[in-house]
Every structure is written in structure tokens, then in C-alpha cells.
Specification:
The structure is a single chain. The chain is globular. It is built from 9 helices and 14 strands. The mean pLDDT is 86. It folds into 3 domains: 76 residues, no CATH class; 92 residues, DNA primase DNAg catalytic core, N-terminal domain, CATH 3.90.980.10; 124 residues, Dna Topoisomerase Vi A Subunit, Chain: A, domain 2, CATH 3.40.1360. It has 333 residues and is of the alpha+beta class.
Amino acid sequence: MHGEDALPAIFAQYAPLVRYVRSTGTNRWNSTCPACGGEPHGSEHDKSMWPDRCVWWNDAKPLGWCHQCQRTFFPDQAPGWEPPSATELEEMRQRRVREAEEQRRKAERQIAFFQSEQVWLRYHEALDAAGRRYWERRGFARCWIDFWRLGWCAVREYPQPDGSVFVTSSATIPLFGPEWAPLNVKHRLVSVPPNRGKYLYEVSGVGQPLFLCDPERELSGQVVVIEGELKAALVFARLDGGGMTIVGLPGLTPRADLLAQIGTAERVILNLDPGAEARSDPSRPSALERMIDLLGRKRVRLLRLPCKIDDGILAANMEPREIRAMLNSAPPA
């Protein structure tokens, strides 16, 4: 895979069994799991969203460990390798616990700062003429820009491996829980640095929430589920609310617990980007099949379109009644 790092030679026996290998520090790598797999959290082209399910350490006692299935992978085919003792295994376990706890505390500190400083509101207040033009070109009227507190970050810097700094602007999308509880901000980079996707989160390591088009509306009755926060927002805005409950997914492979939030809905109209049925691994279900199974096949209506839904609406300048009829025409999955 383009841009993928390589596992150390000592783990050569596992190299054919994992994907999305990414170096995350000195003598440490993340990847899918040789046993239970894993997929990107969002775009597969964005290394920051690649799976961190399995962690590999190449230090005094090399091993891999999966957060999901709890399996440990030893390089037992490496020359001179000796299995760890009971004491060493306990030390490894304690190290994993310490790292997980430190990551949790770091995320808590970031979220506390994010909420106390109202970071999402700062970005909204920073909207200048360029920011307003960006959102208007995306199809959003001023009232919706203000409703969701869509914002603008004029300068974001990303250090590059060669020592240079990549500079870009970003459009900001606040993510709220029920009753407008602030959860995070998603940045849409105007220019994209090498080996990075076009989206990133203000606070990392805290999960990727749903985009609730109306945080005051319960996810019950009929819920329209659309891949992508801005696509969902555009549909909602063009319907002027329209009495429909609409949510945006953070990507093609959201966590099961995220989809469980839609568990009380009686019917789900699902729209994913074209290509969702493609299988990256022929031995595993496609992202679409996985999504339908997690949502509950009996209640899912699948809206297949030849293009991304927001592109189609803008290109055809669809009226609210046309959009509503299109959504309601979705057949059972």
C-alpha cells in the first residue's frame, strides 16, 4: 500500500497478514491485527486514520499485541529468539496498561481545554471573507454557517520529514452531541500535505462522533444516515430541516458502538459514497455489507447513487421536494 511503513524484519512472519503499517515512534508500529483484522477509521489514504488495533514493539523483548482480541504475537521464527518469562510477560502487560492510561489522561486534558476555551467558537468567530466564500461555494447559506458554527482556521502548520513546514488553511466543522454538547472539531484541509488525508480532528484519541444535523432531535423514527458530515449537512440545509432526522458518518468504517446510537430508529435510509461495495480484502465483507449488518438489515433502506449525494444535489439544483422524494425512494437493502 502506498505510503505504508514496513514491520521490522523480526516480525517477517506476520508481514503478509497485516495492512496499514505505520511507525508511531521509536521501535513502535501500529497496524491491523493478524488475527482479527481492522480497517481505517476514515479515509484509507489518511495515515492518521489508519488502524491502531495492533501495536508492535521491537525492543529488548519484541512482540505485537492487539487491543481488540487481546492476542499477543511473538517472533518465534526469528533466529535466536527466546520466549519471555512470566516476569517479563507481566512487565509487558503493565507497560501496556501504563501507555493506555497515559493516552486516556492526555485525551481528557485535551477535551477539557477544548471545552473550557470554546475552541469551536473561536474558529467560527475567525471566519473572514475567504472562509465565508469557502462555505458558500460548498453550498451553505449564511444562516446554516452560523447554525452549525462552521468556522475557519487561516493557518495550520505541519512539519515535514525534510524539516520544512507545510502551511494550509482549514475549514472547521464542530461536532456536537445531544443538546449541543461540544465533542470535537473536524478540520477539512484546503491544501493537503503529502501522506496525509484531507481531514483531521482537533482532539485525537477520543473517537470520531456522529455529526448530528439537529442535536436537539432524537435519533428515532426514520433516520437518514449519510457518509460524511458535510454531505449530511448539505442535505439537511437544502431540506431546510424538513422534519427529517439526518446524521453524518465520520467515514466508511465507523465503530459499531457509534452505529448503536441509531439503535432506536425504526427505519434507516443509508447513503454511502459510490464504491462502498468494493472489497479491499475479498475474504471479508465489503464496508457496505458490514454497515448494513451493524444497522440491522431489516430496517435499512439503501439509497444508491452514481455520484456523491451533495454533488448531485448541487449540480441539479434540486428542490426540497425532489430531495425528499429521492430519499424516500430508497429500496430495502
